[in-house]
Specification:
The protein is 35% helix and 20% strand. The protein has 252 residues and is α/β, with parallel strands linked by helices.
């Protein structure tokens, strides 16, 4: 376990955009499966995920199948819910086999002590989102949403998400994410400096890839996204973290 690298990805937003993105992500999962015993999916892997009592959202069959195969082969898969897929639950845990986390979690990752969080709602500001999140994640709201027909629920989620219509921070300076990126970096820096036993803070959410050494051998890392960057992290014991870009053999 300690000799193989761990990999981290976030903000794939499966269910939006061209199918080539989903295919490339599946190829990346196969790449990881051949090299690693630990995978961290740090939120917004799906653009919409909500588990009803007896049905799950249509699609993502190959991705879910690959994740289940990885778990069956002995690979640990930690899935931290993001603001688009926080509503995961027993299906992902019991049928696919991932370890699903709804809150920030501390994990040992490639011999390092890491705080792993998607990033939504962290740091100062973002009050509107905090209020909305408390409503959407309320038990009563979730119970009521389960009574909405899944087709209608998915349409509502796609309308609210608008992921495909959101510009890249790098290309167009998307205001919401551009403002949150430095705030989350400051939050991560403060967490690292406040806890000398912490080696890494791993975030996503901002769609902005970041590798920042806050103190010798201690890093803030943001795995970026697959909407515009297709970036991921490779963490290996005894080595500095790597922030990499995926290029699949098909070139898509």
């Amino acid at each position: 376990m300690s000799s193989s690298p761990a990999f981290v990805a976030s903000d794939i937003h499966l269910g939006t955009g061209r199918p080539e993105r989903a295919a490339a992500f599946c190829q990346w999962l196969e790449f990881v499966a051949a090299r690693s015993r630990h995978l961290i999916l740090n939120g917004d892997i799906f653009d919409f995920w909500f588990e009803y009592e007896s049905v799950i959202p249509r699609g993502h069959t190959r991705t879910l199948g690959l994740l289940a195969k990885m778990v069956d082969s002995g690979i640990r898969v930690d899935f931290v819910g993001g603001n688009h897929d926080w509503w995961g639950g027993s299906y992902l845990e019991e049928e696919v086999g991932v370890q699903f986390h709804r809150q920030p979690v501390r994990l040992e990752v490639a011999g390092a002590r890491a705080l792993v969080a998607h990033g939504d709602g962290l740091g100062p500001g973002d009050r509107g989102y905090r209020v909305l999140s408390s409503v959407l994640r309320n038990r009563l709201t979730c119970w009521a949403f389960r009574w909405v027909h899944p087709d209608l629920g998915a349409r509502v989620a796609r309308f609210v998400s608008r992921t495909d219509r959101r510009p890249s921070v790098v290309e167009d300076g998307s205001p919401a994410l551009a403002l949150r990126a430095p705030i989350l970096e400051r939050w991560a820096r403060e967490e690292l400096l406040a806890d000398p036993e912490l080696d890494l803070v791993l975030l996503g959410h901002t769609h902005t890839p970041v590798k920042r050494e806050v103190a010798p051998g201690r890093f803030y890392l943001n795995s970026g996204d697959w909407l515009h960057h297709r970036t991921f992290l490779e963490l290996r014991e005894g080595s500095a973290p790597q922030l990499l870009t995926w290029s699949d053999p098909s070139g898509s």
